[in-house]
Specification:
The complex is a heterodimer of chains A (about 300) and B (about 210). Chain A has about 300 residues and is an alpha/beta fold. Chain A has helices spanning about 20-35, 55, 60-75, 85-100, 105-115, 130-135, 140-145, 180-185, 205-210, 210-225, 240-245, 250-255, 265-275, 290-300; strands at about 5-10, 35-40, 80-85, 125-130, 155, 190, 230-235, 265. Chain A has 2 domains: about 5-130, Up-down Bundle (Glutathione S-transferase Yfyf (Class Pi), Chain A, domain 2), CATH 1.20.1050; about 140-300, Rossmann fold. Chain A is about 45% helix and about 10% strand. In chain A, strands 2-1-3-4 form a 4-stranded parallel beta sheet. In chain A, strands 6-5-7-8 form a 4-stranded parallel beta sheet, sandwiched between helices. The longest helix of chain A is centred in the N-terminal third of the chain and has 17 residues, at about 60-75. Chain B has about 210 residues and is mostly helical. Chain B folds into 2 domains: about 1-110, Fumarate Reductase Iron-sulfur Protein, Chain B, domain 2 (Orthogonal Bundle); about 115-195, no CATH class. The relative contact order of chain B is 0.11. Classes of the chains: A alpha/beta (about 300), B mainly alpha (about 210). At the A-B interface, helix 2, helix 3, helix 5, helix 9 and helix 10 of A face helix 6, helix 7, helix 8, helix 9 and helix 11 of B.
Amino acid sequence: MAKKEYAFYPGCSSQLKGSASNYLTSVDSMCKTLDVKLTQIPDWNCCGASIGYAESGELPRHVMNARNFALAEKHLPGQDVVATCAACWLNAKESKEKLASNQTLRNDANEALKEVGLQYQGQSAIRHMVEVLIEDFGYDQLKKPVVKPLEGLKFAGYVGCQTNRPFGINGESFENPVYLDKLVEAVGGEAVTDYDQKVTCCGGALAFSEPDKSQKQIKDIVESAYDHGAEMIVTPCPLCQANVEIYQGEINKKYGTKFNMPVMYYSQLMSVAYGGSAKEAGLDGQVIRARKLEEIAVKVVKK
Amino acid sequence: MSESLNQQALARYSNNFLREVEERVEEGEWVKMCMQCGVCAGSCPFGPHWEHSPQKIFMMIRAGKREEVLKSDSMWMCTSCYNCVVRCPRQLPITQIMHGLATYAHRLGLAPKDQPTRHFSALFWKNCTQTGRVNELKLTLGLYFKDGLVSGIKKAWALKDLGLAMLKAKRLNPFEILKGHECQDKAGIQRMLKKAHEIEHKRRGFKN
């Protein structure tokens, strides 16, 4: 299959020593196997996230995203923009929709972009990495490179909010999306198909400002994964990953629970299944170690 | 400045708060479309914590309850989960309206003073626009130390295990306190955003 090329928008948390740096590590490994070439948009900026609204206003927020699109159109023409972060994808997509439907807003955005010598044309599509996997490859294609099926491992697919609402993945329902379960099955794992917290909100950015309220949400998410016999949680969102993983210790202190559930990215599962080492899959970036995946990662595959 | 902005808004819209919201709040023109079914109220993950549901906020806007709406803490409880948006039978952009109301209340200086998400939201925007990329360490420290040094040290100490674990996992960089990831054209980004704010203020009828 021919090499696929995309304009890559990694987002702030994926950068070196960022809170989701192991996400990027595993995406690189996964893409190497799938022969996908990701070229970072030169000098990309933050999408503004969903939490910047107090001071962002409307136009400045859209302009931040329009700058990234304009840079992609200029330097990587014809390539779809691909984001790995749920919030980056959502905000870029929302800006693109708003700028497409509102001529005044688009003119205003271009007026502001003159300050940096750029123009927004609205040509590049914006897609999440999961969309690339499902739509440009498909589950059957994704199965082919599997050399170490994740047999005997049970995963709770935690989809969360922002890859699911308001846009979602084409063909999936908001209340019960199944793509993550299908990805788990494609790499030979077992999916908890009746995981009832799969689209529950983890609190998002409010995990910082309202920790107690958010940790209540996270407690439900982890507890249900245990109740359904899952050994690990898997998610497509860097904020979901961080929130659900790193606050388990705090929740244990507050509620007397004994949570110790690894929370992985889909790309880490794929990297390991495709024969990547623990390091290539970013398993060393877990706060709660995923021992069973580490065991699979060190196994030698007989050819 | 916010005090005079508020006076100016009061003078301009007198008793018509709905019109004020329609003209000055992002997606505010949709408020009148709410049919008061309450699905948003029942769909919000932070439902038990706010004073007024989106449904109530929208009715209060129509009833002209300007002070109560703009001083409400409800908009600041939005986690941006978009549950309300996808479930609204009228497909109103409820999340965006709630954000828009929060922005407006913050701009007029009427939003609740010690609201932690208000503080964090403003901090986040300043943080990410300063260099074009988020400095995660400064963002976290800015939140912990918002009430001063002593309270900040206490909060940081309480979460020290978490910080150390992130450090060990190489997902936290202590040197970001000096210099984090940045865009090359951060000066351009500043100019671009200044311009965008100017245009938006003009469009929304704010005096500077």
